[in-house]
Amino acid sequence: MKPLNPIVISGREVLPLVEGGKGIAVSNGESSGAWAAAGGVGTFSGVNADFYDEDGNFVPVVYHGKTRRERHDELVAYAIRGGIAQAQIAHEIAGGEGRIHMNVLWEMAAAETVLEGVLSGAAGLIHGVTCGAGMPYRIAEIAAKHNVYYYPIVSSARAFRALWKRAYNKYPEGLGGVVYEDPWRAGGHNGLSNSENPLEPQPPYPRVREIREVMREFGLDNVPIFMAGGVWCLEDWEDWIENPELGPIAFQFGTRPLLTQESPISDAWKQKLLTLREGDIFLNRYSPTGFWSSAVDNSFIEELRERSERQVAYTTEPLGAHSTPLSIGARGRQVFVTEADKRRCVGWIAEGFTEAMRTPDSTLIFVTPENANEIRTDQINCMGCLSACQFSNWAQNETGTTGKKADPRSYCIQKTLQAIHLTDDVENQLMFSGHGAYRFAEDPFYSNGFIPTVRQLVDRLRSGQ
After folding, report:
1. Residue 123 CB: number of other CB atoms within 10 A?
2. pLDDT bucket at 349, cuts 50 / 70 / 90
3. What does the domain layout of the chain look like in residue ranges?
4. Which CATH number fits domain 7-279+436-462: 3.40.30.10, 3.20.20.70, 3.60.15.10, 3.40.190.10?
5. Which of 121, 192, 313, 316 is disulfide-compatible with 84, CB 3.0–4.6 A?
6. Given a cut of 90, is residue 17 above it in pLDDT?
7. What are the tens digits of pLDDT across the range 29-82?
8. 8 Å CB contact between 157 and 214
9. DSSP annotation of 203
10. Phi, psi dihedrals of residue 368, rounded to the nearest 5°
């Protein structure tokens, strides 16, 4: 195993080991502070981070607003307070060691407002900001304003080139690194483009090499690239270390930090990770963001998959093969489907999936009355957690809507991520995970259910294993 030498990240020499900044409360001040204290880069999530009162008690989000806009404003205010709180915790635990980064999603609700609020309220405590889930053109300008480094998350050289030419070239000194997140192997939302086949993973080395070639065009030879997505142990990546073709490289770990003592996820979640097998992570496109995402293939995902499978195209007037009438809803309104689809619909209805719900794509899905009621309730209770939501049709604009029908094939992402965070329900909630999570069950480090501290994990990673 080659020696793992420190590199400069966010203005200081640290171990090139980075904690991935996972979503709602999954990487927090405690986990990121411990990672920094161990000499690496800790990253807490700035996506609706947990907030605590003066006595240190967790303050849950309770919405009082009657409209989506009012609830959206409440959510943003809570997110800013939570981000500041987690930065303070991380700073105290780090004890001046390592670096502390904050991760935000560009497509989350009021991303710029939240980022400005947290960086202002936690001035001097955060050294860098990572940002993905979209094209974060303004992240460089915001980071420069608050004197922190910025780290765009991309999945291709083409994306970085566009970001640099449009915005980042004006703030070259603040570019702390470029995070390459492998769209086929990473957990959570993935940056697969329409031209890439989700079923045919591409090797990361040529893609990262291409990013470095583009960076060299712009004089960014010494700016590190973070390899993220599918990174389990450094023995797998030894040929990347001190590789002149790639330049300075750091390794970002998203999945392995979940299973540490400082990780804020529930014990039930941690135990579930120890049971996963290869193939248990499912790459899907059910997310209300419209992005591909990777999650554990549990009952939650299974229900979404079956919901979309009980789907037929329809027309409101007889048109071509869509000439067979079908009565739907309490009022028996008539739509037209193909003869074969009519037989399928009748079969689903006989099985109890009696509610036909319209999608934006002129299709119907068939669900149980209980499921239909839950979907409609969740859509009504939308709090605007995304810049644009396919599930509820909320959009962060003057009209407050995407202008399209709400899509019942998706789900309320805020609701389910809060539920898995606050309960032990790991079967009926969304559990994001990287595709390498099955290795927990195979790695002898975790035998007999061993759960390490962050420092023990970092020491293990430094050994290459």
Report:
1. 13
2. very high
3. 7-279+436-462, 299-422
4. 3.20.20.70
5. 121
6. yes
7. 999 999 999 999 999 999 989 988 888 888 888 899 999 999 999 999 999 999
8. yes
9. P
10. -75, 160
